[in-house]
């Protein structure tokens, strides 16, 4: 895995990856996510009661999930009284989301498209959210300004992604180690060969959010629980109990 300057081929490459490979293993997880009474975030199923990802007044909010996948986050939002919309570039992921809607009796719009260019007007939503969707798979210099366009003044942006420290320590064969594997300067685009991910260092992310009109309200670096429920190929639990493998950003659009 190597860092590169931003290019425009990531959208089609990631679409192929999700439609041809990833949807097959991700789809079976959808039912577990949709059935959760309390949202549990990220790799380590961190409970909402612990991290308070969602705004306290979520009821009645118009929300857009950017890179929704099987749309379980939007299902959580709908149960909390919000009015969600989900957008994703993978037709197969959205097919699973529609099957879950039918099974659980929760209905909301699902849009096939790019989180970098959403077919909704300016100032449409109160909350833009991404859990390992646009936050990882889209160029932040495209999707974050797009989120700002979509939000009303005072609207919320919440997203979860891998941490920059994880990106610095993950090895070419795909597992986080205790040594640095790449430089932080120039870190942005991570190319796995058959798909592309994006992880900006904290300083660059902070400047991008500010330049897009956001005020950062919190940055939560997630620690894996002890004992953890599982390990992952890319990050063992004992690694993530010592260093943050993932993080949650919370921001508000000024105005």
Tell me what you see in this structure.
By secondary structure, the protein is α/β, with parallel strands linked by helices. Helices cover 33% and strands 25% of the residues. Helix 4 (72-79) links the parallel strand 4 and strand 5. The chain is globular, with a radius of gyration of 17 Å. Strands 6-5-4-7-8-12-11 form a seven-stranded mixed sheet, sandwiched between helices. Strands 1-9-10 form a three-stranded antiparallel sheet. A two-stranded antiparallel ribbon has the order 2-3. It is built from ten helices and twelve strands.
Number of strands: 12
Question: In one word, what is the shape?
Answer: globular
Following the backbone from N to C, one meets helices and strands in this order, namely: EHHEEHEHEHEEHHEHEEHEHE
Estimate what percentage of residues fall within beta strands: 15-25%
The chain-level structural class is alpha/beta
Strand order of the largest sheet: 6-5-4-7-8-12-11
Helix content: 25-40%
Q: Enumerate the spans where pLDDT stays under 50 for 5 or more consecutive residues.
A: 1-6
- Described by its quaternary structure, the protein is single chain
Major sheet, described briefly? Answer: 7 strands, mixed
First CA to last CA: what distance? 40 Å
Radius of gyration: 17 Å
Mean of residue pLDDT values: 92
Helical stretch count? Answer: 10
């Amino acid at each position: 895995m190597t860092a590169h300057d931003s290019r425009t081929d990531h959208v089609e490459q990631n679409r192929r990856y999700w439609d041809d490979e990833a949807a097959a293993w991700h789809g079976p997880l959808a039912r577990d996510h949709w059935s959760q009474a309390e949202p549990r975030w990220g790799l380590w199923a961190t409970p909402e009661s612990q991290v308070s990802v969602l705004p306290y007044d979520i009821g009645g909010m118009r929300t857009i999930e950017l890179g929704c996948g099987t749309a379980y986050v939007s299902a959580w939002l709908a149960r909390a009284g919000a009015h969600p919309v989900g957008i994703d570039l993978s037709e197969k992921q959205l097919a699973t989301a529609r099957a879950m809607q039918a099974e659980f009796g929760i209905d909301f719009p699902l849009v096939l498209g790019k989180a970098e260019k959403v077919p909704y007007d300016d100032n449409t939503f109160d909350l833009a959210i991404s859990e390992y969707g646009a936050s990882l798979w889209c160029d932040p210099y495209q999707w974050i300004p797009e989120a700002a366009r979509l939000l009303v003044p005072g609207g919320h942006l919440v997203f979860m992604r891998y941490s920059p420290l994880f990106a610095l320590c993950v090895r070419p064969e795909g597992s986080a180690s205790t040594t640095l594997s790449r430089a932080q300067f120039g870190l942005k685009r991570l190319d796995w060969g058959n798909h592309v991910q994006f992880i900006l260092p904290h300083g660059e992310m902070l400047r991008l959010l500010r330049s897009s009109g956001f005020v950062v309200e919190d940055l939560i670096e997630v620690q894996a629980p002890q004992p953890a429920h599982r390990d992952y190929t890319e990050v063992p639990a004992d690694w993530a109990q010592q260093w943050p493998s993932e993080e949650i950003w919370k921001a508000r659009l000024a105005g």
